[in-house]
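Structure in, sequence out. Go:
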């Protein structure tokens, strides 16, 4: 074996990082070697051996040389896959089937390494138990001395979003008592709400939804209100900070009261939902719905919800929530409005 062959073998064993790694060159001449993870039209992330993940500005990248196959998304909607080199401001992608495809660097919208591409594809089509995000809220108050009361408010939300679908669950309850001797009523609040809704996008703007909601309210003598409905919605605003949806449809409502015969009726539903990020740590959510009775015109039900969640840490936050349910025809002696105001800790999760 010649000395040149021996030297080549030594270099192969001693310098694997240089031979089997991606490399980028910046406009100022700096070079970074590692594994390209992802990029958009703003930044590129490369994982290096000693500095970990390094994020650089995409416009500052002069050259790219990859040993792994990169998934390159273009502004015309196409995606090409292969090892990448650059020349004169263009990306040359050596694909397996179409040969080398050359595109201007400015036309690249996304770029994923193999690991990031696999994670991205899995996020678009997660298993039924994957992709869930949500949180639980809890607030408790206790007084003793001149007054003797206690109250507990608990809420839970969970959402699972894919490329075209959204499944949401929620439940909240408030229970409060006046423990003073002879206090009437001894129970001052006992209300539970919950529901589930499924949305499917037909286009980036138009979607359909189906859902069901349940409610009980002991002080209104409401044993159970069941609402089953569906309809169409429109994404009026949809970006990283704000979403605004308009919804309309029909529903079937069945109400069972302790002091009244059960009643059922069909109703229309018209509503809007808003979500907006305030700064880096606070999310505002607001919902308003109107349900006119189609069997008995003049009667209706309306709901309004408003809340904020401010992150304290990755899993802990502080929440405030206000809700109002208005009905035109409550049982005799019951009020038309039920207002709910809660504040307390929020425990978030992701799976």
């Amino acid at each position: 074996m010649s000395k040149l062959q021996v030297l080549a073998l030594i270099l192969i064993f001693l310098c694997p990082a240089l031979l089997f790694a991606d490399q980028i060159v910046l406009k100022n001449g700096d070079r970074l070697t590692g594994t390209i993870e992802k990029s958009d039209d703003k930044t590129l992330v490369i994982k290096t051996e000693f500095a970990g993940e390094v994020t650089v500005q995409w416009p500052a990248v002069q050259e790219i040389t990859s040993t792994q196959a990169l998934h390159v998304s273009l502004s015309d909607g196409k995606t090409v896959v292969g090892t990448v080199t650059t020349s004169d401001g263009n990306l040359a992608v050596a694909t397996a089937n179409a040969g080398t495809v050359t595109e201007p660097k400015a036309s690249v919208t996304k770029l994923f390494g193999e690991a990031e591409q696999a994670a991205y594809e899995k996020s678009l089509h997660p298993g039924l138990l994957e992709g869930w995000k949500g949180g639980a809220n809890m607030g408790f108050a206790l007084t003793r001395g001149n007054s003797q009361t206690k109250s507990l408010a608990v809420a839970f939300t969970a959402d699972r979003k894919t490329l075209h679908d959204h499944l949401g669950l929620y439940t909240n309850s408030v229970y409060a008592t006046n423990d003073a001797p002879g206090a009437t009523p001894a129970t001052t609040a006992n209300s539970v709400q919950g529901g589930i809704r499924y949305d499917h996008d037909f286009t980036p703007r138009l979607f359909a939804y189906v859902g069901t909601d349940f409610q009980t309210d002991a002080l209104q003598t409401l044993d159970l209100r069941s609402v089953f409905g569906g309809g169409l919605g429109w994404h009026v605003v949809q970006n990283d900070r704000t979403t605004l949806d308009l919804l309309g449809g029909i529903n079937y409502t069945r109400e069972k009261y302790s002091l009244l015969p059960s009643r059922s009726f069909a109703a229309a539903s018209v509503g809007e939902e808003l979500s907006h990020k305030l700064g880096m740590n606070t999310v505002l959510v607001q919902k308003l719905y109107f349900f006119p009775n189609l069997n008995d015109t003049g009667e209706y039900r309306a709901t309004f919800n408003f809340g904020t969640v401010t992150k304290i840490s990755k899993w802990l936050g502080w929440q405030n929530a206000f809700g109002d349910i208005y009905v035109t025809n409550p049982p005799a002696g019951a009020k038309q409005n039920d207002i709910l105001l809660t504040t307390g800790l929020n425990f978030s999760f992701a799976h």
